[in-house]
Amino acid sequence: MNEDLKRLLEAILDYLCGIRLAEVQGRRSNSACFTKVLIDFFTFAMRENIPWNDLFTYDTFREFRKYTPLRNTAHAIIGLSAYLHRNGRVAAPLKIPNYQVKLPDIYEQYFLYLEQTREISQTQVNSVRRVLASFHAYLESRKIKLSAVKINHLDAFMAEFKVARTTLKTYRHLLRGFLKYLYQERRILKRDLAPLLGGARLFDQKKPPRFLRPQEVQKLFASLRLSTPVDIRTYAMVHLAYTLGLRPIEICKITLDDISFQKEELTVRNRKTKNPTILPLPQQTMKAIAAYIMKARPKTGLRDLFLTHVRPHRPVSPETVVGAIRSTMRQAGLSSSAYWLRHTYAQNLLRVGRSIYEIKEMLGHGNIQSTQRYLYIDTERMRKVLFHETL
Question: Cis bond leading into 312, ω under 30°?
Answer without folding.
Answer: yes
